[in-house]
Write a structure and sequence with these properties.
The chain is 32% helix and 24% strand. By secondary structure, the protein is an alpha/beta fold. Helix 3 packs across helix 4 and helix 7 crosses helix 8. Bound molecules: coenzyme A. The site of coenzyme A (COA) has 21 residues, from helix 2, helix 6, helix 7 and helix 8. One of its GO terms (molecular function) is 3-oxoacyl-[acyl-carrier-protein] synthase activity.
Length: 326
């Protein structure tokens, strides 16, 4: 089996900062409510850039950092729940934008677990020798599927993209992987696509004006998140035969500070071990873990040999974790 190394990372968020106070001008909310329930202070909101635009910018930064040319990329995987189109895939749009002419491209839909699922898929492709270099991207324009009149959801999310270049190597970055899904809980986090309406359906029963607004049962997601974070952490530590003391950082999907607080308490781990940047970006779904990883990389927080855990959870419902040696 080939070894897999993370060669570099990149991220991009749109320049427009929307604070909690800004949101209180749109919906009946307050900085106090949002900060105390979620830890979020502000988020970036697209002023027109779509998912492929942000994904391409993050991808170019990751390539530059990795010193890999676009034409060396064999595979582009974009994790997104907010693609530009049904067809073509966002990954194909990225390919066109960054001139990765030799890549095979596809999108995956795993909501907030998307970046972790993407790294998992890329790893399997490289391990088997079928490709050498993969660009994994998590990118979302959640602002286009938010109901800006629903205070219970519009305050939680933001837009952004992150990328990582994975390559066949003589060094191993990916120590262990775990993931899973529970489709029976899918109704707790929903953004609908178009209904089936064609000349052969009974249109009377179908609401053709269905929207794609995010609808969420926050409490159920909270429970699922805490359960799967604990499960994934234990599974990863067991697989790599390490104690928590040997882990430098845990990078959780950045959804809500209270989830991180709760998980830290349950695991008996100091909150300092968890990297947190959700105060600045909110929940960017498939992009959060990649944005955090890139920020840590840029800040030089990661040294060669450091062990870190990446753990995602979200719509589907899905979850997944990766143990990495930097
Ligand atoms: N501002 C002010 N009040 C708000 C509000 C807002 N933005 N959003 C909801 N409220 C109100 C509700 O209307 C409700 O009022 P009521 O008691 O008068 O009916 C009250 O606050 C409590 O609402 P509730 O939804 O029960 O709050 P909560 O304590 O469960 O917190 C979340 C809501 C979303 C912060 C919390 O459930 C959570 O963090 N869940 C996890 C969600 C998540 O991370 N999703 C990402 C998926 S990957």
């Amino acid at each position: 089996m080939n070894k897999v190394q993370i060669m570099g990372t990149g991220s991009y968020v749109p320049p427009r900062i929307v604070t909690n106070d800004d949101l209180s001008c749109i919906v009946d909310t307050s900085d106090e409510w949002i900060s105390s329930r979620t830890g979020i202070k502000e988020r970036r909101i697209s002023e027109g850039e779509d998912t492929s635009d942000m994904a391409s910018k993050a991808a170019l930064k990751a390539l530059e950092q990795s010193k890999v040319k676009p034409e060396e990329i064999d595979l582009i995987i974009v994790a997104t729940s907010t693609p530009d189109n049904f067809i073509p895939s966002t990954a194909c749009l990225v390919q066109k934008n960054i001139l990765a002419v030799n890549a095979t491209c596809f999108d995956i839909s795993a909501a907030c677990s998307g970046f972790v699922y993407g790294i998992n898929i890329a790893t399997q492709f490289i391990r088997t020798g079928s490709v050498k270099k993969v660009l994994v991207i998590g990118a979302e324009t959640l602002s286009k599927v938010l109901n800006w009149e629903d205070r219970s959801t519009c305050v939680l999310f933001g837009d952004g993209a992150a990328a990582a270049v994975l390559s066949e190597s003589d060094r191993e970055s990916i120590l262990a992987i775990c993931n899973g899904s529970d489709g029976s809980k899918g109704q707790y986090l929903v953004s609908k696509a178009v209904p089936v309406v064609n000349p052969y359906t009974d249109k009377k029963d179908i609401d053709v004006n269905v929207n794609s607004y995010v609808e969420m049962n926050g409490r159920e997601i909270f429970k699922f998140a805490v359960k799967t974070i604990l499960q994934s952490t234990e599974e990863l530590l067991e697989k790599i035969n390490c104690s928590m003391d040997e882990i430098k950082y845990i990078v959780l999907h950045q959804a809500n500070y209270r989830i991180i607080e709760f998980a830290a308490k349950k695991l008996g781990v100091s909150e300092d071990k968890f990297y947190v940047n959700l105060d600045k970006f909110g929940n960017t779904s498939a992009a959060t873990i990649g944005i955090a990883l890139d920020e840590m990389n840029q800040k030089n927080l990661l040294k060669t040999g450091d062990k870190i855990l990446l753990i995602g959870f979200g719509g589907g419902l899905t979850y997944g974790g990766i143990a990495i040696e930097w």
